[in-house]
């Protein structure tokens, strides 16, 4: 699939399927969601092996973070689908009396999902669940950087799904470029801001709406009045326990006070050794870096002369196995490479402030992140953090777990993205909310029609103001 002609043919076939109306049927949507669920239930080992091949991802992370998450999304959609598709009743006013109003959710049509490599199974299928639940036809473009998972997705969706409505198109930049040349009814992209801008520019040519799930430098503020061991374990889980830091919501840097930093570093190093041993490069529980290009990029961050003497833990690497040990740095300069962009790896700088309250202004001086974390028992600091820090999502006293709450939207703000999904928000992301007002032929008000008179204007003014007494006065000439 390397030419625009091929991409155009695929979109044409999908549009014909959508025009037939079959994807609007609730029965079709249910059948396809059940098919996705079967993939997670019957092909767990195959998916785990693909994730191990692409990222050396431990089976624990493969199942918990990817397979079970897709399964949960399918089950939740199947449970709630009837309620989501039911028209939502809306109150009307005296202006339209007698009438009834409702919001009808309808599918957008032909949608494109471009997924990322760091969670190549989850980030491919999670948006697809929402697109199918909403009644759309879909092209899924998996990431070529995770080729084993891309191949498994193409194979399994080809076997289980209705291929006249759901297509997987593999490939790299030429294929993605050809797809972006087509007219879509929605584009859903997960990845980095550089490519996000390309997607947005391509979508603008056709006035296509987009969801961009990007990233950013997610901060974690650590106060002094906390259960330090628990906090350290939760930071490690969200950083190194999530794909070795190759996660858009992983803590990118920590802010704490100068006095507390040594205690925090000691707690982190103690727990890291419990989790990954004295030689973390030998641990089977630490994911590898996805490829040599990303390994070299991270190595340059470590070797930057502005931070090379700031390493307080870790720093070891093994290029042959694409592994970098958990690495902690203290008080790296603001103009260092590691602070210039999202790290997306197992490196964690700790920045210090004089007062913990100063961390809020430090965060707000940077672009708005996809997630922000604070560890504290101080009620005032919690309130100030929630009120004054702008981020896609926020979590108090833990990391990353807000993604698992189906009732919360997941998405960015500013440079960390636009639009959101998860749970009903996934359904809404791929739906048009159509306003419907229904009236009978009764109750036709002559005052709305010409010729306009002072009496008619008086009545309409009273109606539009909701002035009941004024309405009676106008009607009876008082």
TrEMBL record:
Domain Aldehyde dehydrogenase span(s) in chain numbering: 3-436
Catalytic activity: an aldehyde + NAD(+) + H2O = a carboxylate + NADH + 2 H(+)
Pfam families noted in UniProt: Aldedh
Listed GO CC annotations: cytoplasm
Keyword Oxidoreductase: yes
Active site (record annotation): 213, 248
Keyword terms: NAD, Oxidoreductase
Family that this chain belongs to: Belongs to the aldehyde dehydrogenase family.
Protein name, as recorded: Aldehyde dehydrogenase
Organism: Dorcoceras hygrometricum
